[in-house]
Hints:
Layout (H helix, E strand, L loop, with lengths): L4 E4 L5 H10 L1 E3 L9 H8 L4 E3 L20 E3 L10 H6 L3 E3 L6 H16 L2 H9 L20 E5 L3 H14 L2 E5 L6 H6 L2 E3 L3 H4 L5 E4 L13 H6 L5 E4 L8 H9 L5 E4 L10 H4 L4 E3 L8 H19 L10
Parallel strand pairs: 1-2, 1-3, 3-4, 4-5, 6-7, 6-9, 7-8, 9-10, 10-11, 11-12
Helix pairs in contact: 1-12, 4-6
The structure holds (2R)-2,3-dihydroxypropanoic acid.
Amino acid sequence: xxxPSVLVTRRWPEAVEAQLKRDYDVTLNKADRPLTPSEFRExxxxxxxxxxxxxxxxxxxxxxxxxxQVKILGNYGVGYSHIxxxxxxDLSLTVTNTPDVLSECTAxxxxxxxxxxxxxxxxxxxxxxxxxxxGWRPTHLVGTKVSGKTLGIVGFGRIGxxxxxxxxxxxxxxxxxxxxxxxxxEILAQFGAEQVDSxxxxxxxxxxxxxxxxxxxxxxxxxxxxxxxxxxxxxFLINTARGEVINEHDLVQALTFGTIGxxxxxxxxxxxxxxxxxxQCDNLVMLPHLGSATREAREAMGFRVLDNLSDFFAGRDPxxxxx
Length: 323
Ligand code: DGY
């Protein structure tokens, strides 16, 4: 029996690539360079499955093909707002993602960012490395206490809940939750959390706000100047979701004029390009999209794509089907 043909758009962990080679007629992207829309169109005509990730813009232009060979996009990652949903539906493509296996590691990075910005760890590290540190003193790089404060979580899916677990049980934080749908009381009770009706109700009550909602057009600029103004003076904003959820121009204003205490970002609008204005803000911590970047999570994400593919090619509905 001929094996299905599969294109992997970026390098994946070795163990997963080895398994892919055993199970499929696989083409790997040895150069690890993102494909262009025309390369995607060509691939959709040649492969049974394409395995993209967040750095691949699979927009309407890339999906502008007739009678494609491709039947499934097995996305490596939980977020899939880089895939144009209406165009994928028009072509009757199946799209899968990789939930669960990265939730703990992404929440770990969100907590890392929260602690870094509150305790001015980025500023301190820059000072030590540049040789500017003159020694301990009572007024040096004084930050904000984290334990016992109030954390607002926007989007209470798997990653939001892992963040709540860390903040509540590790740091005794009070948890407020804003989510599109109602969360069952027994789930909220696990974290001593309260669900609020709207983000506008939540922001004025929080010392920290952490974003865990999907990206894409619906949530583009959910956090804008008006909402940043609703945050407490001195509060902190953390984003491990998608860059477009924050209006970065408005964030720069809030950071520059000190209307909030600081921000910490793992994701950026139009990444890997970083707005030069963000680079000027000292009260901002920035990481290069490291949320799921552990050996364990990255391997598990790959094996989860393999599970979805084997279900699909065996005629079963893949467990992580999102389209
Ligand atoms: C995710 O899983 O969505 C991560 O951001 C990487 O794509």
